[in-house]
């Protein structure tokens, strides 16, 4: 099979925004409030249609009714027009057109839109579903039961730790195994139409400093595993013609979104 395929389009959809103390994002930092996008990426492949990577939050228009005190704690900003279904409609698609969903992990700020994709083929890291149902105590609040119920309605392919999965067999979309933040954390490697490579980190990194310093965050399920995954991202970042975008990094987000939703 040829390994020289590219994606056709990439959209970084209008994201809900949160505010968190930097201590949540990297061990040893703190005392600084940082804006954090909670993005979803829509990818179009010429032959294989639409794939979405992560689904952001639920409760567009009224996040307080969905997340209660968390909405205020994280200063969640999520206007109604940023709901995934409305954004897809504005691009001329419907949620039913999305044939595949890749979830970086099951924390609530990635799973809020899973309810829209019950008919899609899912890709999830091995061990993630089990961990979400019986998480470590210090991250229990990061999983939302309604999202896990929505996850149960998706037909998941489990991507084993240590294995990177070439979704279409042409090198255009590769699911990266990046365990450590959670047992099944994933990233996504895309080959763009100009031949360059764009890596979406998922949450094993929350800011570029996680990668530069190979230091994770307090919420990681496996600190040593996270360091190994950060080393992998650092190696990828060092390759020519390759950009690693950290999903929650506000500077990366602003660069990626410099021309609006459509990246390519
Ligand atoms: Zn997370």
From TrEMBL:
Keyword Metal-binding among UniProt keywords: yes
Span of domain Metallo-beta-lactamase: 37-248
Keyword set includes Hydrolase: yes
Protein family per UniProt: Belongs to the metallo-beta-lactamase superfamily.
Cofactor(s) required for function per UniProt: Zn(2+)
Cross-referenced SMART domains: Lactamase_B
Entry keyword set: Hydrolase, Metal-binding, Zinc
Protein name listed in UniProt: Metallo-beta-lactamase superfamily protein
Record-level Gene Ontology MF annotations: hydrolase activity; metal ion binding
Natural source organism: Rhodococcus koreensis
Pfam families associated with the record: Lactamase_B
Gene3D superfamilies for the chain: Ribonuclease Z/Hydroxyacylglutathione hydrolase-like
UniProt xrefs under CDD domains: AHL_lactonase_MBL-fold
InterPro entries: MBL_superfamily_lactonases, Metallo-B-lactamas, RibonucZ/Hydroxyglut_hydro
